[in-house]
Amino acid sequence: MNNFKPVKQEKTVISIRLDVDMLKSVDNISLKTDISRNELIVQCIEYALEHLDND
Fold first, then answer.
1. Is the dihedral of CA 11, 50, 28, 24 positive or negative?
2. What is the model's pLDDT at position 1?
3. Fewest 10 Å CB contacts: which of 5, 37, 38, 46?
4. What DSSP state is assigned to residue 36?
């Protein structure tokens, strides 16, 4: 069995501007899935980066 080694990931605070309707959609999904707005946005960005067509 591997030993547990806690690791603190480096994060930084940024500011973004969203269309009002997009923010409402993000907030609705956040409520339905019971995750924070921040975590939802992070997961969306991760998904987009993983599926980005780099051609």
1. positive
2. 65
3. 5
4. -
Supply angle C-alpha 11, 32, 25, rounded to 5.
75
Indicate whether 53 pLDDT > 80.
yes
Select from 19, 43, 16 the least CA-distant residue to 29: 43
Please give the full DSSP string across 5-29, using - where no structure is assigned: ---PPP---------HHHHHHHHHH
SS3 label, residue 37: helix
**Nearest residue to 52 via CA among 1, 44, 19, 41:** 44
**Residue pLDDT, tens place only, 3-39:** 988 888 899 999 999 999 999 999 999 999 999 999 9
